[in-house]
Give the backbone structure.
Amino acid sequence: MARKRYKVEETLGKLRQDKVLIDQDWTVAGTCREIGAMEITYFRGPKEHRGLKLDHAPTLKERKKENSRLKRAKAMLSSE
């Protein structure tokens, strides 16, 4: 069974909900169950999206696309 890939915006929203519930003295397992995420999202999410705001998420997508386009162009030039 394939796992679901969350968008950056969804992950940031879940991490924000996690933070609120943890501040209300919930356990990590309880918060993950409440928001419907795995515990690994709680631990890995902040590392991947360190300091990223919700309004910066679309810019991140554009930068990733531009970066992959430039890598392809560099590979084509180096192979010639």
User: Anything to note?
Assistant: The chain is about 70% helix and 0% strand. Residues 11 and 45 are 7 Å apart (CA to CA). The mean pLDDT is 79. The radius of gyration is 17 Å.
